[in-house]
Amino acid sequence: MNFSYAGRPCALLRVPQAVEGGLELKEGGHLVAYSRVCTHLGCTVNLVRDPEVLAFAFNYRPPSDAQHPQLGCRCHYSVFDPLKAGDAVFGKANGPLPRVRLELRGAEVWATGIEPAPELGG
After folding, report:
1. Is residue 110 within a helix (H) or strand (E), and if so which, with residue range?
2. Which alpha helices (H) appear in the chain, and where do they start and end?
3. Neighbouring residues of 94: CB distance < 8 A, sequence distance ≥ 6
4. Residue 122: pLDDT band by 50, 70, 90 thresholds?
5. C-alpha distances in angstroms, 49 versus 25, 62, 88?
6. Residue 40 half-sphere exposure, CB side, CA atoms within 13 Å?
7. Cβ-proximal residues to 9 (8 Å cutoff; 6+ apart), any chain
8. Which residues share a beta bridge with 10?
9. Which of 11, 64, 116, 122 is 20 to 30 A away from residue 5, measured at CA?
10. Mean pLDDT for the stretch of residues 96-109
11. Cross-strand partners of 12
């Protein structure tokens, strides 16, 4: 799910395992949220669900243990792994996507903060 926090486009993802900085749900499952601003030059990243699309459109074939949706930047083909705390795993990005801090308030999930972004470039 896409949303904005502090004027920055962000993505909330349900993931199959605990991720550093993520949120464990009481009924099971895990959530994690990241800024959608690429750490290379500030383009917007999008969720890429199909590993074959990553291979064709981004020239990146995830390893066999990473055949899950990734976040990709179409400007310069950086790829970020949401199960590795948003780390840049391919391309020109110079750092991970900033994580959005999540909090449960009753049955609702709230974004309550965001990590500082690295300086753009590189």
Report:
1. strand 108-114
2. 51-58
3. 39, 40, 88, 118, 119, 120, 121, 122
4. low
5. 22, 12, 16
6. 19
7. 2, 3, 35, 36, 37, 44
8. 3, 35
9. 122
10. 93
11. 33
The half-sphere exposure of 44 on its side-chain side, counting CA atoms within 13 A, is 8
Beta strands in 6-107 (DSSP E): 8-15, 23-24, 30-35, 45-48, 70-73, 79-81, 87-90, 100-105
- Cα dihedral 6, 8, 14, 15 in deg (nearest 10): -110
pLDDT for 118: 74
CA dist., res. 53 & res. 25, Å (int) = 30
22 contacts 13 by C-beta, under 8 angstroms: no
Take residue 64 and report the two structure tokens written for it.
């066999």
pLDDT: is 116 or 84 the higher one?
A: 84
What's the whole-model pTM score? 0.92
